[in-house]
Amino acid sequence: MAECSVTVDSTDQMSYNTKVITIDRSCKEFTIRLTHSGMLPKNVMGHNLVISKTADMQAIATEGMSQGLDKDYLKTDDVRIIAYTAMIGAPEKETSVTFDPSTLEVGGDYSFFCTFPGHIAMMKGKVVVK
Ligand code: CU1
Questions:
Q1: How far, in Å, from the CA of 11 to the mean position of ligand 1?
Q2: What is the DSSP string of 49-72?
Q3: What is the pLDDT of residues 76-100, one digit of tens each?
Q4: CA of 121 to the centre of ligand 1 (A)
Q5: Cα 1 to averaged position of ligand 1 atoms, centre (Å)
Q6: How close is the Cα of 34 to the center of ligand 1, in Å?
Q7: CB count, 10 Å around CB of 26?
Q8: 1: buried, middle or exposed (CB in 10 Å: 19+, 13-18, 0-12)?
Q9: What's the CA gap between 91 and 38, in Å, rounded?
Q10: N or C: the chain end with fewer CB closer than 10 Å?
Q11: Spatial separation of the C-alpha atoms in residues 108 and 20, rounded to whole Å
Q12: What would the pLDDT profile of 4-44 be if each residue is shown by its tens digit?
């Protein structure tokens, strides 16, 4: 059976606990659960998880910065965003997003990243579609 969900943890060290997320395109729905194991609040060490083509990643993060904290540092109606979670920080422990993976191409160049200002330098990884 296909694995149709994954959990990624984020930390006060400005990191995710994985560098690769594998998405099985045969899943009807795919769920990404983002946890925050740190003690710092959202305005200091907020994290989200956004998926886009790798080529669009930097532009989405830059545009997100100008949106400010109340909009979770993300322009959510940007059509280049494939999926995104809310931004969380302590005391929130987790959030999740469920989306249809059939919009992704097998072998396509996708990434996941955090749009909190400055975090993309460390908080990014590859999305592998199989
Ligand atoms: Cu972050």
A1: 8
A2: -EEEEHHHHHHHHHHHHTT-GGGT
A3: 999 999 999 999 999 999 999 999 9
A4: 10
A5: 32
A6: 11
A7: 12
A8: exposed
A9: 9
A10: N
A11: 14
A12: 999 999 999 999 999 999 999 999 999 999 999 999 999 99
